[in-house]
Write a structure and sequence with these properties.
Elements: H1 5-16, H2 20-25, H3 29-43, E1 69-75, E2 78-83, H4 86-94, E3 97-103, E4 113-121, E5 124-133, H5 138-154, E6 163-166, H6 170-179, E7 184-187, H7 189-202, H8 206-211, H9 213-224, H10 230-243, H11 249-260, H12 265-268, H13 279-292, H14 299-321, H15 330-347, H16 353-363, H17 376-384, E8 393-395, H18 421-428, E9 433-435, H19 449-460
Parallel strand pairs: 3-6, 6-7
Antiparallel strand pairs: 1-2, 2-5, 3-4, 4-5, 8-9
Helix pairs in contact: 1-3, 5-6, 7-9, 9-16, 15-16
Length: 463
């Protein structure tokens, strides 16, 4: 039900490799479409016109006929569908560190979001439970957690993570606090920075942020507060305030009123965490959205694609168990080592708060996935955070065999060259260093002095 009938017919006709005579008598895709559509309707359920619909066995089981629909619940007329196999649940319940994240583009009609729980195992993220939620209230999240708890008991396991990483949604924060009081709960660092930058935009400061170095550095120092030890955050904030330009008064008031008075510092602080963002979970969402290949698909297309992802989960688990899982890139490890070294120097009082924050500004925008890939979604995140295109050097995954000297890519970020996801992903193949500038005068292997200096700077900081 997810691929056009005409396309399927043309693909199968090409695979059949008919002779000239066979092709001459074969039907065109237009002629075959009516009969093929009738066959499809016999195997595909009618599309629902509300959230009240039955789910056939074909969509309740995995491709190899194991139970896949874990829970089918209703809370105050809001439906909740949870998908997971016992193998996925076992991995989830044995994990001590989990990530929670939602997405909306892939959500079928009559549901509000797709919500996923991922576990971290050997530094890699695995999607273990995927839910279609009819709402975003605290009680709906608690229904999801309760159902998972029931199955943990059935499997003679416990659902008691010690560390949880999520976004800042208030309904979720309350549900996590009530259901997992024993867990250390941190919110995603990217979402923290994104929230601060959106406030910068809302206050009409985006142009000043882009053009005024003092304003930009002050804003970034506010974002970098999350990287300090909790005990130093308030003192560092007051230091920043004492030197902040008057134009940022409203931003300072917002930061004090919201991030200190409404959100506990311990929640948004990510000091000494190896995993600071939900990028791994969002990476899976991007992968899933690409396979869905449409916005708000029908529920049958959604479940069919999810069943294919369950096969991918099993493959990744087997790779991990056999030692074939992909290691984190040397560049990502080097950057993590650099961050750890900075934290150690600060803890040992070798550098002060101001020096620490200034160095963090230099490295905080080096964003890659756990294996070193840089996706277009990460680039969009970077731009949403207001990164200055003249200051950014990014480490990009270099596929085997690519010639890095011929793979320098330049984007004019002010004219929207980053908008096309497929174009970006294709462009990233073979890129060793991605240098963002404000004009397209430096293209591909063109060697300007500024470009050479940028590459040398990247080497010097261990990228």
């Amino acid at each position: 039900e997810s691929i056009a009938i005409g396309l399927i017919y043309d693909q199968e006709l090409a695979r059949a490799n008919f002779s000239q005579a066979g092709l001459a008598v074969s039907l065109s895709s237009q002629e075959a479409k009516s009969s093929l559509n009738k066959l499809r309707r016999k195997t595909t359920p009618i599309l629902p016109d509300s959230s009240d619909f039955d789910i056939p066995d074909l969509y309740s089981t995995t491709i190899d006929s194991r139970r896949f629909l874990l829970g089918d619940l209703t809370y105050h007329r809001k439906r909740i569908l949870i998908f997971s196999t016992d193998e996925q649940l076992t991995v989830l319940f044995k994990a001590k560190q989990i990530m929670m994240d939602g997405t909306f583009n892939a959500c079928p009609p009559y549901f509000e979001q797709v919500y996923t729980l991922h576990c971290i195992k050997h530094g890699k993220s695995f999607p273990c439970a995927i839910a279609l939620l009819g709402g975003k209230s605290t009680n709906i999240y608690k229904q999801l957690f309760n159902e998972l708890e029931t199955h943990a008991t059935r499997l003679q396991l416990d659902f008691d993570p010690t560390a949880i990483l999520s976004d800042f949604e208030k309904a979720l924060l309350k549900a996590v606090r009530e259901k997992f009081p024993q867990a250390t709960h941190h919110a995603c660092y990217f979402h923290f920075c994104q929230a601060v930058y959106r406030k910068i935009q809302n206050l009409g400061l985006a142009t000043h942020y882009r053009d005024d170095e003092h304003i930009r550095d002050t804003c970034r120092q506010l974002m970098s507060l999350a990287l300090l030890p909790c005990r130093e955050v308030e003192f560092a904030f007051e230091e920043i305030v004492s030197k902040a330009p008057p134009l940022l008064l409203n931003l300072i008031d917002y930061f004090r009123n919201f991030w200190f008075r409404q959100m506990p510092v311990e929640l948004w602080n990510v000091h000494n965490l190896d995993i600071r963002t939900n990028n791994n979970a969002e990476g899976w969402h991007n992968r899933f959205n690409r396979r869905i290949n449409k916005t708000h698909p029908n529920v049958w297309h959604f479940i069919s694609t999810l069943k294919q992802e369950e096969v991918y989960f099993r493959q990744q688990i087997l790779h991990m168990k056999s030692g074939k899982n992909k290691n984190r890139s040397k560049k990502v490890c080097a950057m993590q080592d650099r961050l750890n070294a900075l934290s150690s120097r600060f803890d040992n009082q070798e550098i002060d708060v101001e020096e620490y924050l200034q160095v963090k500004i230099m490295v905080k925008f080096v964003l890659t996935g756990s294996t070193g890939e840089l996706g277009s979604s990460v680039l969009r995140h970077l731009l949403e955070l207001g990164a200055n295109p003249k200051e950014i050097i990014l480490s990009v995954y270099n596929p085997k065999g690519a010639d890095p000297e011929l793979a320098k890519i330049v984007f004019d970020v002010r004219h929207g060259d980053y908008k096309q996801q497929q174009t970006l992903e294709k462009a990233f193949q073979g890129a060793e260093i991605l240098f963002l500038v404000s004009s397209t005068t430096m293209i591909h292997e063109k060697r300007t002095e500024e470009h050479r200096n940028a590459i040398e700077a990247a080497k010097n900081v261990g990228i």
